[in-house]
Amino acid sequence: MMTTTLDKIIILLVVLIALLVYILFGTFVFVGNAERVEIFLDGEEYAVYNLAEISGTKVLDIKSETGYNRLEITNRGAKMTEASCPDKTDVLSGEITKVGQMIVCSPNRVMVKIAGKDDEKVDKVTY
Amino acid sequence: MKSKKYSAKNICIMAVLTAVGIVLQYVENRILISPVPGGKLGLANIVSLINIFLFGGKNAMVISLLRAFLGTLLSGGVTALPYSVTGTLFSVLGMVLAKKYLYPKAGMVGLSVIGAALYNLAQVVVASLIFYTGYMFSYLPQLLIVSVVSGTVTGIGAKILGDRILKDGGFYG
């Protein structure tokens, strides 16, 4: 026997917690339409773009102390196309288009987030 | 355990297991690409689990932290250190406590899943502190699902290995 009854209960509990957090975020945080792309560097706001005002593809080079990230923004959303970090987690994240979705580049401390309407308020609550 | 805790033989085994952990972590980092940011299989967790049973919580903690530190420097770089060291700290702590209070009702798989879930929870907390945003917790559901899968896989690995090492004599046979 590989698993005991308690093992299965533990697995079920972890899945339930995952589901609960997912539902909480879906209900209270990820609401409304995508309006802005917010870019943070070192925990501070670096740039904000209004999705509706962007025509075509805007290419943004974000330079940080440790390297660079190239972000492409369209009126649909944003995606990281190049990065200097070794793991490329951010590039593999693909395009983000929905409120609350993020691209994170941990080595360069770059975070890109899609934001909707009353996001400031929600941000404070979740923090 | 039959022999003395800090005999030359045990110290050798601890050193070898540290090295095995580093290699497992390094190889995994090289060949597996995570579908989720921060997610991983955590093969080195097999070694951590075995250590808890062989040498007790404190020794397992020291070995695991050393392994996480050196293994991350080798493969992930300095920026990944806060995540892996904090994750390992809470993961091993959770598994030690789970072994103390839940074992043998919970088996290797249960302990391993607890360890994996705590590892990922710690990662999300560290990321929240580094990026100053609670939004990082939106990664938690997918990371917890990854921990269930990876925890089960490494738990089965630890069970197979543990049965041989702990029951059939193994190092001490």
Number of strands of chain A: 8
* Oligomeric state: heterodimer
Principal-axes shape call of chain B? globular
The CATH topology assignment of the largest domain in chain A is: mini-chromosome maintenance (MCM) complex, domain 2
Number of domains of chain B: 1
Number of domains of chain A: 2
Kindly estimate the percentage of residues of chain B that lie in beta strands according to DSSP. under 5%
Q: Architecture of chain B, CATH level 2?
A: Orthogonal Bundle
Element-level helix/strand string of chain A: HEEEEEHEEEH
Categorize the overall geometry of chain A: globular
CATH superfamily of the largest domain in chain A: N-utilization substance G protein NusG, insert domain
The proportion of residues forming helix of chain A, as a percent range, comes to: 25-40%
Task: Note the main attributes of this structure.
heterodimer; A: 127 residues; alpha+beta; mini-chromosome maintenance (MCM) complex, domain 2; 2 domains; four-stranded antiparallel β-sheet; 3 helices; 8 strands; globular; B: 173 residues; mainly alpha; Arp2/3 complex 21 kDa subunit ARPC3; 6 helices
3D architecture notes:
The complex is a heterodimer of chains A (127) and B (173). Chain A starts with a helix and ends with a helix. In chain A, the strands form two sheets. Chain A has a four-stranded antiparallel beta sheet. With 127 residues, chain A is an alpha+beta fold. The longest helix of chain A is centred in the N-terminal third of the chain and has 25 residues. Chain B is mainly alpha-helical and 173 residues long. Chain B has a single domain, classed as Arp2/3 complex 21 kDa subunit ARPC3. Chain B contains six helices and no strands. The radius of gyration of chain B is 16 Å and the shape is globular. Classes of the chains: A alpha+beta (127), B mainly alpha (173). The interface between A and B is large, with 39 and 42 residues.
Layout of secondary structure:
The complex is a heterodimer of chains A (127) and B (173).
Chain A lengths: L4 H25 L6 E6 L2 E7 L7 E6 L4 E6 L4 E6 L5 H4 L2 E2 L5 E4 L4 E6 L3 H8 L1
Antiparallel strand pairs in A: 1-2, 1-8, 3-4, 4-5, 5-6, 7-8
Chain B lengths: L7 H24 L12 H12 L1 H19 L5 H21 L6 H24 L8 H28 L6
Helix pairs in contact in B: 1-2, 1-3, 2-3, 2-6, 3-4, 4-5, 5-6
